[in-house]
Sequence to fold (798 residues):
Amino acid sequence: MGWPAFWEAVTAPRVVASLRLTFGASLIAASINAVFGLLVAWVLVRYDFFGKKLVDALVDLPFALPTAVAGIALTALYAGNGLIGGLLEPYGIKVAFTPVGITVALTFIGLPFVVRTVQPVLEDLELELEEAAACLGASRLQTFQRVILPAIGPALLTGFALALARAIGEYGSVVFIAGNMPMISEIAPLLIITKLEQYDYAGATAIAVVMLIISFVLLFAINALQWWSRRRSGKGD
Amino acid sequence: MSIEVGNINKQFGSFKALDDVSLVFPSGELVALLGPSGCGKTTLLRIIAGLEKQDSGKVLFHGEDASARHVRERQVGFVFQHYALFRHMSVFENIAFGLRVRPRATRPAEADIRRKVHELLDLVQLDWLADRYPAQLSGGQRQRIALARALAVEPQVLLLDEPFGALDAKVRKDLRRWLRRLHDELHITSIFVTHDQEEALEVADRVVLVNHGRVEQVGTPQEVVEQPATPFVADFLDLHDHGPAWLIQAKIRHRGFVLHAVDQELRTA
Amino acid sequence: MTAAIALSTARSASTEEPPWVRWCLIFLALSFLTLFLFVPLATVFHQALKKGVAVYLNAIAEADALSAIRLTLIAAAISVPANLVFGVAAAWAIAKFEFRGKSLLLTLIDLPFAVSPVISGLIYVLMFGAQGWFGPWLQANDIHILFAVPGIVLATVFVTFPFVARELIPLMQAQGNDEEEAAISLGASGWQTLWRVTLPNVKWGLLYGVILCNARAMGEFGAVSVVSGHIRGMTNTLPLHVEILYNEYNFAAAFAVASILALLALVTLAAKTYVEWHFGHDERTIIQEHAA
Fold:
């Protein structure tokens, strides 16, 4: 496959749409996970409530549950006749078989990454730092923004990057809920499989190459950001 | 500002950290809370700061009950044992923190913050470190930055938890003399916690000896050395064993006190 | 001492949020987890049993389902021991020796985590497919890899490769070489050192890696989907069987088979939690001691 053929293959509207969907939905899902993953980690580390141990163990479910099982379960839930989909349908909100559904599935599979990277850092965070901030007159919110968040920032970013990488490559949990309509809800990994089934090996490889390049650039950027922030705050205590 | 604590009790589970402690810290004095580790001295310091809540008893600031006041509103400068510097902030930003988090109405202008921070850096003689990060500083430098940060909010009282505990012997000695001079300059009511009798006797105006959550004796270094009130005090100040009392005497004199005859009587007390 | 312990565990009033904030945050976090985790998990079992136990049992006992179970077990039975050996070897080499290309090896170990499983599968197609690099030779010798059991096993081995190695590398690095050197100085051979010193020291980490490796091996979908060819009763693993049933609108059967996998996931989590508990008691402390 020459360069012109490669370029033509990866700039075909259907391919571009699928790449945009894959990276867009993955970014949104990883962002949702960054926010809620931090919240879950915070609640698990800082507060006591009934069933905390069980909840803590179940956070890893998306690691352990085969993606196909997650996929059909989420689809059954969020379809128009499903438990949650049925609640949303009267308001005209459709989740399953739309890009929203894809984001839901990607959020599910990326959930443990942020929690599990932030949790140990939050556990090890010296209480003295927060006490020092309080002595200096900072409110809890100010302490969180100015002291806690910068301290767990690198871990949060790592978790975000892991969730993002996982979401970009995800296939099993997405295909069921996606609807897989070309140009609208067809993700790039699915398009690779479609091309393979049509024996278009060159086309499939071209998409794979583009996906790898974009993922690599994204992860490189995140690593660079992290390196920069680590260097700034220095190491040791 | 004077501080008074009255009938303070504090319990951690089955462990009684403070048992009916009442003390007065006169305005402008530098007082040492001295005792073995686990005796409750740090807990008392944290209760005065408002970092810990007493089970019962009162904390009076300038005669007013401050028990209900949140640590944010007590205007205490607290220097932590391990400094608790914010490692993602430069030395400058660490010191400016207390000014920057003030409500908008009372927050100084940026220029005033800069001036104030540089004044404090001058005071602790580390102006050239403003742009460094805590990780790049030595232990003694961190200690002084932590102190400058605590002073930035113009505290009514300065509380120091084992201020020299994490430093090596040489730096310790230099720094505690420096702290003494600084206190003579600022005259801010200060309380520091230590388990090192030499440190307490050399630096403090007044020493409070604490054991098992109770106050054993309060007095000037001279008083506690000359007339230890309980066997614990004599024991803890090392006054009978290999008690080189003349050494303690010399040290106290070094600080301007004159200590008279410390003789055999004291050794057998 | 006691006071210090009490201080470090109990959060003082000065660093605690007001109760209403606490309860709001707990409520939000649990709502999120309920929506995204608990309800989907419960749905699997609910849907599986919706049409009764008889339908459920039929779906599981059906011939194609049984053959899918068999294939999944075979894939796991080969890939888990294989990666156990690879993982220990790789971690041992990386943690205990210095050699050129070490960081390259580290990157390669991470590769299956970084690359989409679909792309992993694609690499096998490009290598072993009819038009692939080895395709003509394989055809000439009548060896079937793609769309056959060997392809599924290969793909599974690939995607599960990092689990054991990743778990062991930090552990072995933290433990250093002291104990091995002591053993060798006492006259132990290399093998004896490995069996009697190195492995016992990392046993919980090893078990942890194996549990995660097994869960992924049995549940892998994307990579296996690409190389399997979806031949019913032949090259169908459990997750692929779920897909086929689902796409045939045989939802009850799909969820019945899925419920086996969900149970497997719950067993995995329980085992993982159990191991973590032990882990926390010995190996984490080793890491901390060495880090300090």
Observations:
- Chain A has twelve helices and no strands.
